[in-house]
Amino acid sequence: MTIVLAALEADACAQPVLSAAIALADLFDATPVALHVREDGTRSPKALASAADVELRETAGDPIEQIVAAAQAPHVAALVLGARGVHGGPQPAGHTALDVMTRVTKPIAVVPPHAQVRQRLARILLPLEGTSETSQALEKTRKLAHGRQLEILVLHVHSPATVPAFSDHEPHATQLWEQEFLSRYIGPPHQRVSLVRRLGVPADDVVAVAREMNAELIVLAWNQDLSPGRARIVSETLAHSDVPVLLIPTA
Fold first, then answer.
1. What is the dihedral of CA 93, 99, 103, 108, to 10 degrees?
2. CA separation for the pair 46, 51 (Å, rounded)
3. Does the bond joining 189 to the residue before it have cis omega, within 30 degrees of 0?
4. Partners of 119 in the beta sheet?
5. Alpha carbon distance, N-terminus to C-terminus of the chain
6. For a designed S-S bond to 84, which of 91, 94, 145, 240 qualifies (C-beta 3.0 to 4.6 A apart)?
């Protein structure tokens, strides 16, 4: 049985995490399963999992080690975590999420504590920088979304140096450029796929476009490197997003 694993704590983020896991299980054609690592003095989210008719597996030990070990099992398609912490922005990922993200080489969804998550997705945002590495990492997710008939918003953010010179003057040429971009970086079919273009800084525009377009999930490719000066788009998106962020390793 293929599963999407939801790491639950008995806190305010448990409900959004569980709802996101149910939504991603539908996307991945998997079964949602909850995991709770017991610690001294903590409550169990048993009632929450039971109300959602989701199996709850409980274990004890170091939360990070237990979550990483469980997520690496071959039958786990994706892991869902709550975003908690205080550094880098209003609601960045906390220590547990950051540590797990860099150690688990599978799709990981990080869920804001205030997220209003529907248990069936309708629209997702896929930022693409225009490289084969990024597009290949996101291709499986795109195919899964297409199979579920989700609306896919492909975001490409131009810098002043990369914006096509004709974009403000020749609508036909702009349309041809957009078709070429989708053909190069998004495999067919292109039904229910829209290209959204912006001029600016990707780290600033991803969350803004997600809000503007009512996206319910942001999907980012990344190389699991959080060292200083790296992964700015991932860090800024996690810090400011109102919706779950699904991270797909490029390796």
1. -20
2. 9
3. yes
4. none
5. 25
6. 94
Helix (H, G, I), strand (E, B) or coil at 127: strand
CA distance 205 to 157: 8
- pLDDT tens for residues 196-240? 999 888 889 999 999 999 999 999 999 998 888 788 999 999 989
> Which of 86, 111, 136 marks a domain boundary?
111
Instruction: Indicate whether this model's pTM tops 0.85.
Output: yes
Statement to judge: residues 86 and 146 lie in one domain: no
**CA 240/CA 90 separation, integer angstroms:** 7
Does residue 129 fall inside a structural domain?
A: yes
Residues 107 and 131 in one domain: no
Q: Taking Cα atoms as reference points, which of 42, 103, 41 lies closest to residue 70?
A: 103
Nearest of 4, 81, 7, 15 to residue 52 by alpha carbon: 15
What residues make up the domain containing 129? 123-249
Domain of 183, CATH number, reads 3.40.50.620
Is the Cβ–Cβ distance between 49 and 8 less than 8 Å? yes
* Token digits of residue 19: 């709802």
Same domain, 233 and 133: yes
Beta carbons within 10 angstroms of residue 17's beta carbon: 29
Is 117 contained in some domain? no
Tokens, residue 54? 């989701």
